[in-house]
Design brief:
heterodimer, A: mainly alpha, 2 domains, two-stranded antiparallel sheet, 2 strands, about 0% strand, B: alpha/beta, four-stranded antiparallel sheet, 10 helices, about 35% helix
Amino acid sequence: MPSRTRGRESADGRVLGDRVPSLRQTWELTRVDLLRGYRWVRQQDFWLAFTVLMGILSVFFLLETYAAAKTVGSTLATGAAPPAWLVMATSVLWVFLTVLLVGDGLGSNGDLDHDGHYLTIRPAADVVGGKLLAAAAKFSVYTIGLGVAAAAGLIAGTGSPLPVLGIAVAAAIIPATAAAVGYPIGFALKGFIRRSKNLQRLTTVLGVGLGIAYVTLSVTGELLTVVDRLQPVLESAPLAWMGHLAVATTPGAAVDMTDVLVLLVLAPIVVVGGTILSVSAARYAWLAEGAPSTDSEEGPLPTAPESQLDAIFDVSCRAPATRGVASTTLRRAVRSPYQFVFVAPPLVAGIVFVEGAVTTGSVPWYVPWFVVWYGAWAAGAVLPLNPLGNQGAVLPTLLTSPARARHVVHGNVIAATIVGAPLTAAVAVGAGYLASSSAPVMAGLGVASVVAVTVSSIVATGLGSVFPRFEAISFDGSRQAVPPSKRAYSLFSLTLSLLVIAVAVVIDETARAIGAIVLSGWLPFGIEIGSQTLGAIASVVLLGGTIGIPIAYRVAISRIDAYHVQ
Amino acid sequence: MTFSNGGAVVVPDHAIVADGLTKRYGDELAVDDLSLSVPPGTVYGFLGPNGAGKTTTMRMLVTLTEPAAGSAAVAGVPITDRPQLTRQIGYLPANPPVFDELTAWEHLRHVARLHGISDDVADERIEGLLDRFDLRADADRRIESYSTGMTKKVGIIATLFHDPDVVFLDEPTSGLDPRAARTVRDTIAELVTREMTVFLSTHILPIVDELADTVGVINDGRLVAEASPEKLKARADESPDLESAFLAVTDERDPSSTEQPKADGSNPTATGVRTDG
């Protein structure tokens, strides 16, 4: 009965193929995924700049890693055991990557139908295999970078090239096992969430809660406490084996080779087992996709929407077109907050200030002025700096409507200031209180916040209308945002920084005195500048800024009114 | 259809008049010396192969793009006068111009505000049009959750609800199911009875055949034929339908065809010179 045998073999093969990815197809899907990722980054100037910036910042970290590894190499060469911190650092790296990969699996990268056509060509198992291998390859950028620095340090410390072997194997095993553990967890969580309406509703709240918890732990220094609490786990098997493996081939290192051998045997089992689990978990998440909600068909027909936002703009905007632009701009920003990513980088400095305020109970004198600068800059950069580009596909509707440029400018400025001004003033005055600023300075901070946010929004519309940008940046799948153009962004940042510094110098005596000292130190040919002279220069800058505001307003009006689509 | 010019109310003879409209993108000539006129209260079907210059022509007529040469007026307003012109027109691009983050009702109210319409008046009109296009039940859902057809409907409503004198519709029925497409066809037919002028660009020839009073065919940037559907169909060699006529007319102008048209249009057959309809 040859045909029956063939049929059974074919059925068995099909069952196996449904559960275990084909190596050849996995490789092909991974290759294409990595190629697409590379080309995507290359075309996205924002992400390219971000990657370059991260690369530059990581150079310092890698140099530290090299120096530390060199010292460890010298110590290990004497027959010492690997230091506890090294083992723990390797374990932390694995945990870090696993957490990131859980998030990756949970996100749209982990959607089986993200590249829908694959599922019509290959079994789900192959798609999962491709996703896992591609994720491991992408996240291995961490282990490769650190591995190269560590290997170079160990070679320098021991004078032998052998450490490369252990480091290379560890650099491959860490992301591979992290993906095999993290992805099925991410898939399974996604399946739970998709099956539970309550969890779906809570997803945003949980995400924000986790983010706040992480930032809180970071700024209060409690993150290290958490790591300390985890120390027994991080320094024990099986996580500690990663660290042992990394230095296993370093000459003289007193490492228990049994641990290393067990890890080398266990790692493929974890990878294969995790992959098979991932296939089931991914299917579980994929098949949880239900039909769209039919709530709207059951309930009463919708009526005209009423919102408090509209009520506020009814009071503050006379022209319907201004009200339309302001409320729509704000509503879109809140519902699709990716635009805020472009103004997030200075918040890194903010974390340092908050950490200092929490631990010492006070902040330096300049922090309130930093808040004013940041509030004004962010309010201007997040929305008004690209008044045309932010319209996206609706730009033709705007340009062919009777709404004029002044409505667009007013709407953008109102949208930015109605949120930005009170928020900036509150935080700046609060920071002024912590900095023990005098009452006049605190009053100045409040006024400066409102004025700075309003002025920055006007200046931003002027610069943004001269240098519009329409190309969106992708964040994750279909989530996109249109950033301001690089020229508008740079010019606006420079202009606003100058203006806020000038205000600080004019209002705050301390700022004036310190500014004079700093400038005298920087200026060439031994030129010195007194605080009074600096105050006068700042006043001139402010005067120029004051004249520039109506000019920026007029420029925005004329550019938007005369704008033509190419 | 009326407009005010220096205090005097003027009724233009033609809703759309274009004279020698030309548009270049670098060295490429997108629209070449295009002239046409559309009487008020009629439907003008604007046909042409992909990349022929239909969208560029429409963009020039709605002031989105500046012509390199030539002039035009819509509802009696020159296309150089955007503030005045935008009060008379509605424009639906091929990609529906909607904000995905808003609900349909919020988006339509936004467009109403851009037209200076108060919320109360706008809501009444929006409600009626949402009902008509069978969108009312989904009006409080964000547009990002809509199908292509539903999104298109929102775009169509946004184009029409301020009651313009002249509407420019670029592929209004693409992506719509037959019922929705029929609603759009009926709506266009009704618009004309209200003396609205419709400039309709589409690849769906039966719609043009059914609705258009005049059909203009653009190919490679030049208007190669302009006639009533019946007269245009009569030019077809194989069978008297619009598709055959379209293929025949555009094939005549195809630069890759063996018979090259003369630049001065002296060969009526080769250049597909206009047949007055």
